[in-house]
């Protein structure tokens, strides 16, 4: 397995919609393993393929420290809200280091997709896992969580980004 470089805010790949995965082979299995290892190394709860420079519709997740056993991957995810209830909570991103802000998301979502072998997978998730599904699918659509913030919070986050050490390298 290989730890991949995480792309940072400003990289065009982060605002590019990812392509559907159509080939389920050993290279895809290796990609999933690399993504899980990269996410673990970075201390994240989710990682989308475009965050490592690949425009493929796949993300990995690990909410097992909060919700029992929820660790894995979803390929070609599609989600829908279950009900209208929302949650407001701190959200950050491995591609935007040291920036977090209260972000509104649906409380419960239903997601479907495929596993690494091309088999259908689906789950209903609430709380952190629901937030993760929405955040990572946004990545695959080329949308960063900053776009989900109120104008005031977005302005504050952008000011912090512009003065950050990682952005000004």
Automatic annotation (TrEMBL):
Known EC number: 3.5.1.88
Cofactor: Fe(2+)
Residues bound to Fe cation: 93, 135, 139
Biological-process GO terms, alphabetical: translation
UniProtKB keywords: Hydrolase, Iron, Metal-binding, Protein biosynthesis
Reaction equation(s) it catalyzes: N-terminal N-formyl-L-methionyl-[peptide] + H2O = N-terminal L-methionyl-[peptide] + formate
Cofactor note: Binds 1 Fe(2+) ion.
Active-site residues annotated for this sequence: 136
Enzyme class of the recorded protein, top EC level: hydrolase
Matches recorded under SUPFAM superfamilies: Peptide deformylase
InterPro entries (UniProt xref): Peptide_deformylase, Peptide_deformylase_sf
Top-rank taxon: Bacteria
Role of this protein: Removes the formyl group from the N-terminal Met of newly synthesized proteins. Requires at least a dipeptide for an efficient rate of reaction. N-terminal L-methionine is a prerequisite for activity but the enzyme has broad specificity at other positions.
Annotated protein name in UniProt: Peptide deformylase
The species this protein was found in: Corynebacterium humireducens NBRC 106098 = DSM 45392
